[in-house]
Write a structure and sequence with these properties.
24% strand, 4-stranded antiparallel beta sheet, Arc Repressor Mutant, subunit A, alpha+beta, homodimer, Jelly Rolls, DNA-binding, 44% helix, 7 helices, 3-stranded antiparallel beta sheet
Chain lengths: 220, 220
DNA sequence: CGGCATCTTGAGTTGGGTCAATGGTCGTGG
DNA sequence: CCACGACCATTGACCCAACTCAAGATGCCG
């Protein structure tokens, strides 16, 4: 790839996201049912997306941190199927899909990039489906913590000292279990010296130990 | 949209899928880890995709019938994260992604179409996540049967007389429960005159009754 | 300091898993 | 054509992980 083309590409990517928006903790960018207008990239902060079921139930379908993109669910029907909520004060880059489409015609890499982003989201969802469908409580929490750890690390933060932005109930919603169960498992992991837990401050003490929790379960 | 452009578009879509392939029941198009080469559309038959977890566990992440497209999980890393298996003799259209990308530059609708397809897959996955995360066994089966019914109907088949192509165990894998539980719930639904069950032949007797099963559960 | 939200812990219940046995169905070969 | 064997589905009995309900504990903010 010629250097010039690459730098053009970067410039384009930058143009894509030139609109920013600040979002206070607890506020939403869009609600379920809103007309789809754009994709969103987290610049700073933490976002959750929750899907509303036909009956009243709500489940968190994703947590997004700096560098991650969300909102893809709105493309299919031009209408968002989820609600996005800031878990802390956040800064969000707005990426109008029309702009992506136009740039894609000129720069095939832009198109490639967005295909890959959506594919990655699909893979991520399949991972959660496996977690929800075939792991037990302790395995789910272990997998969740390791996943957070890795994402923090990838973003330049410590992979061991994690400050949770979500409450226990939200973790439960995401992992398909009740608050009480989440809490009990945190306590258990602390007793077993896998984690140290103080409120939302979690320190991962034994990565290997957590890894071993996953997959060595009776379930076949 | 001028009629001519529309017909060009259709022609292009047709060119996209001009390679076909027959697949015997039980055979695979690709395995987890294979290099990604193309997307696949079901022309006739029935396909399952299953994801392999780090530990040995396997979970079915999708069932695809005529008209549905699968394989999107391979785009992210250029490597498939799942294995696709034919549940019955099937005919598959091969859609090389490069071709999609090239046509997209010329026909923006092609690009739109594939963005929407991927978004739809994400929405579908979120639905399953909700099902796995917050529904109980009976609700899951009810939701599953109604979903199948609707897809059969959309493809021109009877929405009431359904011939399952997958075994009970595969339904269980997809819905996050054991064979025995699936079987018990089918029996229960039959006792309650919601379904009539004979082997893989299911007749839906009471759509409203099934709908009411979903969402009226203790959970919260 | 009080009030409110969140988190933890305990006790009892239950949906679904496990294990084990039985029953059907289908394809193959004698 | 029937009998055998393989595979799949169903059913029963028992058990346990996670849920429910209920009480405290902890921390946060005005």
């Amino acid at each position: 790839m010629p250097a010039e083309a690459a730098s053009d590409f970067i410039k384009k990517l930058d143009e894509l996201v030139y609109v920013r928006r600040r979002l206070k903790a607890g506020n939403s960018l869009y609600h379920s049912g809103d007309r789809f207008q754009a994709l969103y990239a987290v610049k700073t902060g933490f976002i959750k997306t929750e899907s509303l079921h036909d009956d009243g139930r709500v489940q968190i379908t994703g947590f997004y941190m700096a560098g991650e993109i969300f909102g893809f669910d709105g493309i299919a029907t031009e209408e968002h199927m989820s609600t996005s909520v800031a878990l802390e004060d956040s800064e969000i880059c707005i990426i109008p899909l029309d702009r992506v489409k136009n740039f894609s015609r000129e720069f095939s890499q832009v198109q490639n990039h967005f295909f890959k982003l959506m594919s990655r989201e699909i893979v991520r969802d399949h991972t959660i489906m496996m977690l929800l469908g075939s792991m037990q409580g302790e395995e789910r929490i272990a997998a969740f913590m390791l996943n957070l750890s890795q994402r923090f690390y990838a973003r330049g933060y410590s992979p061991f000292n994690i400050v949770l932005r979500m409450k226990r109930e939200e973790i439960g919603s995401y992992l398909g279990m009740k608050v009480e169960t989440v809490s009990r498992i945190f306590t258990k992991f602390q007793d077993q010296k896998l984690l140290s837990v103080h409120q939302k401050n979690i320190r991962i003490l034994d990565v290997e130990g957590l890894r071993k929790r996953i997959g060595q379960h009776p379930s076949k």
